[in-house]
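Quick question: what would this complex look like in 3D?
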Amino acid sequence: MAVGRTYSVTQLNQEIKGLLESNPSFRNLFVQGEISNFKAHSSGHLYLTLKDAESAISAVMFRTDAMRLRFQPQNGLKVIARGRVSSFPKSGQVQLYLSEMMPDGAGALHLAYEQLRDRLYREGLFDEAHKQPIPAFPHCIALVTSPTGAAVHDMLRILRRRWPMAEVLIYPALVQGREAPASLVRALQAVNRDKLADLIITGRGGGSLEDLWAFNDEAVARAIYASHIPVISAVGHEPDVTIADFVADLRAPTPSGAAELAVPAQEEVREACAVLTRRLEQAARQRLTHERLRVDGLCGRLGVQTPVRYLAEKRQQLVQTEERLKRLQTGMLAERRLTVDLQIQRMTRALQERLAAERARLGRGCAALDALSPLRVLGRGYAIASDEAGRAVTDSASLAPGSRLQLRFYKGSASCEVREIQKEN
Amino acid sequence: MAAKKKLSFEQTMARLEEIVRLLEQGDAPLETSMALFEEGTKLSKELNTMLDSAERKLAVVSHDEEGKAVLQPFAEEA
């Protein structure tokens, strides 16, 4: 046996490690295999074997990397892992030191999704504080979706049934394929520029992971985040959540679900209005009753009856008074009539007495007058002589022989001529 | 399209709720209470009118060269 350089075991293992680590491809490679001998150590490190049909290799994932795993590794699970190749000097064992691991079924797509999701989360795009409230009674809803297919028609039907008061505008976009992300972004930006809608619903019906991949796109996520108008996401793909769902202001499981979340049901709103109206009337009635009771109470405390009863009483009193008055008036009238009659009688008597007295006086006067009456004198044989002028003659000196004289006797008269005048001596 | 009506449905309903709350508190003067009741009755009628007269407008949007929105009728499935 020829003896070259003699290594200690330690030296050998170190060499092997150095050799492995010097290979550039071994510093960062992807390995596909099935997990076996999985052990999660209490320290947080994971120990496992990756194997395929023929071979196996040891692997370890240290705690800091293991913490970020998005799934639970288990025996039998096929995975794709990223890591470096080296060896463990103590045992000389070749090992994979894994930094990432993911289920193989999803492939690179899924990895990309998770990495983007985590990055945007750290940036704050999913923050609750940024999310806008959805209007309770939207005036105009923009649907950013395909104008064909079941999704849009489902949404239209439900929106019309629940809340026809809201106008609906369709902003057509591609919802799958390579052009879809740019199309969605353009539509979302157009809605914001046009400022016609106060709510956006964006989404699509169900499909495979590839079909709805546009809703995991970073540009779409940022366009949703930047929207001044609230966005409801409606990607039909339970149970997985797309990145659009994380960024949106509200998430719905399906397009139909989104329509139900977007608007209230008009029957419920009508009922709510009816309830309010009933409460309004009830409250007004109670207020009036309360007021009436309050007034009654006050009146009671004042020792006065309630205004209504008081007025009724007063009215009653008034009626009674009126009647009494009427009776009194009738009585009084009778009395007054009596009095007046009496007075008339008295007056009449007085008048009559006066009349009699006057008549008596008149009679006496007449008698006196009569006594002095020339007619009486004439009855005793005297005569009245009056001249031609009709003046009574008292002195014969006023006469001349031949003047005419009228003589008035007690009965009858005579015209005479004077013959001779005899003077008084 | 912001609400061009005098008061939106939402605002009308909110005011009606407020009036009912005030009336149920019961400490407003009687005059005020009756005025509130009148206003509330008017609002209730308006809400029902708005619900009954909903037009259900629908259109698909495109944009012209200047970027202005162009609305066209959209054919709904029956």
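Answer marked as accepted. The CA atoms of residues 7 and 46 of chain B lie 10 Å apart.
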